[in-house]
Amino acid sequence: MHVIRRKGWEIPEREATPEHLFLNRRSLIKGAGAIGAGLILPTGLAAAATDQYPAKRNEAYKLDRDLTPENVASRYNNFYEFGLSKNVYTNIDTLKPTPWKLKIDGLIEKPIEIDAEDLIKAMTLEERLYRHRCVEAWSMTVPWTGFSLKKLVDYAKPTSAAKFIRFETFQDTKMAPAQRGFFPWPYIEAVTMAEANNDLALMVTGAYGKPLAKVFGAPLRLHLPWKYGFKSIKSIVKISFVDKRPETFWETSGPGEYGFWANVNPQVPHPRWSQANEEVIGTGDRRPTLLFNGYAEYVADLYKGLEKEKLYI
């Protein structure tokens, strides 16, 4: 008898959402009227080397769950540089992802300045199926394309003094008018070196088998599937290796509600709502939230000895 042993982050097949239900979430189409197929598609793809897509799928990252359809995932996003609503796809065209200079500096052998497209071409890309869990208690599942953050670490050649990686997005009020608002721009995020070298941490260059759409954070973003989505910074322009823990965007904006670690935990509520359950975007279904978003076996050991830290906010 062949026994299938599922990993802790896999959902039993009987719980998988029927594909047709993904298109029924009324909040995605309320007020939109009849939506043409052209409007459903993501607006504007980064001009990366398209012959790298679709990339070969890494079968180590499987999910017993339907993927969120592209026309749903691309129409429900947080990208505060372009507004506070979820329908940022309607005004994302001002983002110009090419040419896109990326600076890598700090505690490394030699500072690097490279076009994002050239960096992407230099890397071997792969596709991974990952969960995405927002701190607002909704989730989706996306086929991301990219390369491991560990490969970027190896590329940068940090010194032993580097303890954290600081990520910074662009600041350009002409390109992103919402940056004229009250938030502490630019958007800053950070991870420890141990987190950066974890197998799950992914530098994302594409989604759904093609270069990354503007609405997903073209041309280069981060994805950390065991953390709340706000840690997965978009449209990165600078990566710095530092010895002290950076203060991140949401720590500065709402220190009573958001912290540095932001690991998913159903038992630790947000100050204004529960994290015990999540809505699966595109279906309206709710399901229990999993510790570390279902990736505990990969990342739990990263936080041993840090029990006094606020790991789940």
Task: Describe this structure as you would to a colleague.
The chain is α+β, with helices and mostly antiparallel strands. The chain has a single domain, classed as Alpha-Beta Complex (Sulfite Oxidase, Chain A, domain 2). The chain is about 15% helix and about 20% strand. The protein has helices spanning about 25-30, 35-40, 70-75, 115-120, 150-155, 195, 250-255, 295-300, and strands at about 100-105, 110-115, 125-135, 140-150, 165-170, 190, 200-205, 210, 220-225, 235-240, 275-280, 285-290. Strands 3, 4, 7, 8, 9, 11 and 12 form a seven-stranded mixed sheet that branches. A five-stranded mixed sheet has the order 2-1-10-5-6. Strand 1 and strand 2 form a beta hairpin. The longest helix is centred in the middle third of the chain and has 8 residues, at about 150-155. The radius of gyration is 19 Å and the shape is globular.
CATH topology: Sulfite Oxidase, Chain A, domain 2
- CATH homology superfamily name: Oxidoreductase, molybdopterin-binding domain
Number of beta strands: 12
Mass-distribution shape: globular
The H/E string reads HHHEEHEEHEEHEEEEHEEH
Q: Determine the strand fraction and express it as a percent band.
A: 15-25%
Which CATH architecture? Answer: Alpha-Beta Complex
Report the C-alpha radius of gyration, rounded.
Answer: 19 Å
The overall pLDDT average reads 87
Specify the CATH class. Answer: Alpha Beta
Continuous helix count: 8
Helix content: 10-25%
Give start-end ranges of low-pLDDT stretches.
Answer: 1-48
Structural class: alpha+beta
Q: Biggest sheet, in brief?
A: 7 strands, mixed
How many separate domains make up the residues?
A: 1
Head-to-tail CA distance between termini = 44 Å
